[in-house]
Design goal:
Helix content: 25-40%
CATH superfamily: Amidase signature (AS) domain
Order of helices and strands: HHEHEHEHEHEEHEHHEHHHEHEEH
CATH class: Alpha Beta
Structural class: alpha/beta
Shape: globular
Radius of gyration: 20 Å
Number of strands: 11
């Protein structure tokens, strides 16, 4: 096999080459900017490309490297979902309402990554305010899937999934309220982590439903997600939801053996509650064999019904999203996309009693999942029914019309990682999801990393 070219390096590979002075940050950044210019018109992954600031940051990384600075993210080109505040660079949330919004300071996660020497390539397409679904009535078009540009990327971190898969950025930031990191990871064939609630600061990230919102990394591999998380994670006293979690290196723990880990299969979700396509069933069966070959003890687990998690999640998201937007919905309704209006306006009909009942039932579901983790170290599920559907077939009421498996981790407040589990007969990626107990982020990353290596899914890229 030939060595990967700069746009297709992993973060870990690029960091090693930069540290060995075999690749310069400026050279790497120029290669990615050239690929964005050539490929992104077909993908719409970027809303804003920050070419001059990116090259300036790359030159600064080069100087830091010459001065002896070492960090795995030094000179690594990244891009951020356009709900992350970036000082002096517009943050639109893919909405007319924020088309001219220029923050004065970085989101805390952006600040930490840039302080480590990462290079910001630009801001990435999202669904409007991270909920609207793919919409064609906004100033920017929806992102398209690099495996087949007729197809959906998943959302709402749509540009993040497309950019990483297509080699337009080595890593990206997304947000996840009901699967918005993990659905694009599944459909675009990359890795995406929804961390434990409170592990990663949300300060400076435009909220959707604060009870469920999380911020997390997206990259080509679980290892790259761990490298990003090492810098992103940590207590932020200015974020009321931030928690002082365990102080560990997520990247350094990836190689620890997983032999003997107890893996619970959430079979009822993908066979009974929301049956998946036959090729996804086959992928899951193959994946479970890989885990057994790695020495894991694989058994079925019996969670509460998927519809319970979805009902709780939909009520909370609808109520909180409507509350956040009520004032502007009353005065600027027509400036929102139709998809956003369909998904959020129903929140006006949710009573305080309904909302509190959902929060109480969420407590019960958290306890039920914690009970499962007394018997299992990791749970495994199928995040999607099949490969990416056609973009034109996406419904504004999606999420209400059918249960979504990824909602479980948000409602249960546990970490969840999606990696590529295999491919459909048509060559489209199929995702697999690993869930861990609260603060078990290191474990799901370790299992995901070793699964990727054993399954061999990381050598195949989309052909643009």
């Amino acid at each position: 096999m030939t060595a990967p070219t700069p746009p297709f390096l992993t973060i870990a590979e690029a960091a090693g080459l930069i540290a060995a002075r075999k690749l310069g940050p400026v050279e790497l950044t120029r290669a990615l900017l050239a690929r964005i210019a050539a490929i992104d018109p077909a993908l719409n992954a970027f809303i804003t490309v920050t070419e001059r600031p990116a090259l300036a940051a790359a030159r600064a990384a080069d100087r830091a490297l010459a001065a002896g600075t070492r960090h795995k993210l030094l000179g690594i080109p990244l891009a951020f979902k356009d709900i992350y505040d970036t000082a002096g660079i517009r943050t639109t949330a893919q909405s007319k309402l924020l088309a001219d919004n220029i923050p004065t300071r970085d989101a805390e996660t952006v600040h930490r990554l840039r302080a480590a020497g990462a290079v910001m390539l630009g801001k990435l397409t999202t669904h409007e305010f991270a909920i609207g679904g793919p919409a064609f009535d906004l100033p920017w078009p929806p992102a398209r899937n690099p495996w087949d540009t007729r197809r959906f990327t998943g959302g709402s971190s749509s540009g993040s999934g497309a950019a990483v898969a297509a080699g337009l950025a080595l890593g990206a930031l997304g947000s996840d309220t009901a699967g918005s990191i993990r659905l694009p990871a599944a459909y675009c064939g990359i890795a995406g982590l929804k961390p434990t609630a409170g592990l990663v600061s949300r300060r400076g990230v435009i909220p959707l439903a604060p009870s469920l919102d999380t911020a997390g990394p997206m990259a080509w591999t679980a290892e790259d997600c761990a490298i990003l998380l090492d810098t992103m994670a940590g207590y932020d006293p200015a974020d009321p939801a931030s928690v002082a979690g365990p102080r560990v290196s997520y990247a350094q723990g990836l190689a620890a053996p997983i032999k003997g880990l107890r893996v619970g299969v959430l079979r009822r979700f993908f066979e009974r509650d929301a049956p998946v396509a036959p090729e996804t069933q086959r992928m899951m069966a193959d994946a479970l064999r890989v885990l057994r070959d790695l020495g894991c003890r694989v058994e079925d687990a019996e969670p509460p019904p998927l519809i319970d998690f979805n009902a709780v999640g939909r009520v909370i998201i609808s109520a909180e999203a409507y509350a956040l937007h009520e004032g502007r919905l009353k005065t600027r309704l027509a400036d929102y996309s139709r998809a956003f209006r369909v998904r959020v306006l129903g929140g006006a009909l949710i009573s305080a009693a309904d909302y509190l009942a959902a929060q109480r039932h969420r407590t019960d579901l958290i306890a039920s999942m914690a009970g499962l983790f007394r018997h299992f170290d990791v749970l495994v599920a199928a995040p999607t029914a099949g490969p990416a559907p056609l973009l034109a077939e996406q419904r504004p009421d999606d999420g209400f019309a059918r249960p979504i498996a990824t909602t479980v981790a948000n409602v249960a407040a546990v970490p969840s990682l999606v990696v590529c589990g295999g491919f459909s007969a048509g060559g489209l990626p199929l995702g697999i999801e690993f869930l861990g107990p609260a603060w078990g982020d290191a474990t799901v990353l370790r299992v995901g990393h070793q699964f990727e290596q054993a399954a061999g899914t990381r050598s195949r890229r989309p052909e643009m």
